[in-house]
From TrEMBL:
<dbReference type="InterPro" id="IPR001867">
    <property type="entry name" value="OmpR/PhoB-type_DNA-bd"/>
</dbReference>
<feature type="domain" description="OmpR/PhoB-type">
    <location>
        <begin position="124"/>
        <end position="222"/>
    </location>
</feature>
<keyword id="KW-0805">Transcription regulation</keyword>
<dbReference type="Pfam" id="PF00072">
    <property type="entry name" value="Response_reg"/>
</dbReference>
<feature type="modified residue" description="4-aspartylphosphate">
    <location>
        <position position="51"/>
    </location>
</feature>
<dbReference type="InterPro" id="IPR039420">
    <property type="entry name" value="WalR-like"/>
</dbReference>
<dbReference type="InterPro" id="IPR036388">
    <property type="entry name" value="WH-like_DNA-bd_sf"/>
</dbReference>
<dbReference type="InterPro" id="IPR011006">
    <property type="entry name" value="CheY-like_superfamily"/>
</dbReference>
<keyword id="KW-0804">Transcription</keyword>
<dbReference type="Pfam" id="PF00486">
    <property type="entry name" value="Trans_reg_C"/>
</dbReference>
<feature type="DNA-binding region" description="OmpR/PhoB-type">
    <location>
        <begin position="124"/>
        <end position="222"/>
    </location>
</feature>
<keyword id="KW-0902">Two-component regulatory system</keyword>
<keyword id="KW-0597">Phosphoprotein</keyword>
<protein>
    <submittedName>
        <fullName>Response regulator transcription factor</fullName>
    </submittedName>
</protein>
<keyword id="KW-0238">DNA-binding</keyword>
<feature type="domain" description="Response regulatory">
    <location>
        <begin position="2"/>
        <end position="116"/>
    </location>
</feature>
<dbReference type="InterPro" id="IPR001789">
    <property type="entry name" value="Sig_transdc_resp-reg_receiver"/>
</dbReference>
Length: 223
C-alpha cells in the first residue's frame, strides 16, 4: 500500500515515515502543500495524510483541490486544531478521518488500517509489455522466461513506466516516484538509473522496449 504523507515538521515527518515503512507501507513524504500536489499529479496513492498547517498550500487547500479533481483517494487530516468547527469543515471538504496532534502512532496506524479496509480495491497484479512482465505481488520481473533482478529504485521506475505503457512519462514524474523530495541533490539521477535499467531490460534482448522521447521523457512500448 502506498501512502503520501505531507507534514512540515521535519522531526514528526521523519519519525512517522520511518515507522510506517517499518510496518510495511511504501511512503512518500513531503514538507508542503505544493509538493503534495506535485506528487498527487504524478502518482497513485492508496491513502493521503495531510497536515493542515503547512506552508505554500495548507492541507485543506490540497484536500479541496483533490476532491474538485474528482480523485477519491482516502484522506486523513492531521492537525493540532481540535475544535468541532475545524473537524466539520475538513470532513465537509471530503476528508475521511481527522486525527488530532499530538497523536499516538498506534492510533494513527489503526485509523490507516480501518480506512484501507473500507476503501480497498483490487489492483492489477501483473503488468505486461511485450515479453516483459512484472508481478506486483512478488516484485518479480521477467523477460523471455529470464528473471531480472532490479534495485528498489529501478523497480519503482519500471513499474511506473509499465503502468503508463505507451504514454510518455516525464523525467519529473520519475523523479517524484523514485526519489523523496527531502533529497534535493538529484540532477541526473534519473538518467543514471535509466541506463542501469536499460542494461538489464533491453541490452540482452533484440527488441528494445524503453525509448527516449527527447525533450519530454521516456516511454515503454513495443514498436
Amino acid at each position: 500500500m502506498r501512502i503520501l504523507y505531507a507534514e512540515d515538521n521535519l522531526q514528526i515527518r521523519t519519525i512517522t515515515t520511518e515507522r510506517l515503512i517499518k510496518d510495511g507501507f511504501s511512503v512518500d513524504s513531503t514538507k508542503d502543500g505544493e509538493q503534495a500536489m506535485d506528487y498527487l499529479n504524478s502518482t497513485h496513492y492508496d491513502l493521503v495524510i495531510l497536515d493542515i498547517m503547512m506552508p505554500k498550500m495548507n492541507g485543506l487547500e490540497v484536500l479541496s483541490w483533490l476532491r474538485k479533481a474528482e480523485k477519491d483517494t482516502p484522506v486523513i487530516m492531521l492537525t493540532a486544531k481540535d475544535s468541532i468547527q475545524d473537524k466539520i469543515y475538513g470532513l465537509d471538504l471530503g476528508a475521511d478521518d481527522y486525527v488530532i496532534k499530538p497523536f499516538s502512532y498506534d492510533e494513527l496506524l489503526a485509523r490507516i488500517k480501518a480506512i484501507l479496509r473500507r476503501s480497498f480495491k483490487p489492483i492489477q497484479n501483473s503488468l505486461q509489455v511485450g515479453d516483459l512482465s512484472l508481478n506486483r505481488t512478488t516484485n518479480e520481473v521477467m523477460r523471455q522466461g529470464q528473471s531480472i533482478h532490479l534495485s528498489k529504485k529501478e523497480y519503482s521506475m519500471l513499474e511506473y513506466l509499465m503502468m503508463h505503457a505507451g504514454e510518455v512519462v516525464s523525467r519529473e514524474s520519475l523523479e517524484r516516484i523514485s526519489t523523496n523530495f527531502d533529497y534535493e541533490g538529484y540532477s541526473n539521477v534519473i538518467d543514471v538509473y535509466m541506463r542501469f535499467l536499460r542494461r538489464k531490460i533491453d541490452d540482452p534482448f533484440q527488441t528494445k522496449l524503453i525509448h527516449t522521447v527527447r525533450g519530454f521523457g521516456y516511454v515503454i512500448k513495443v514498436e
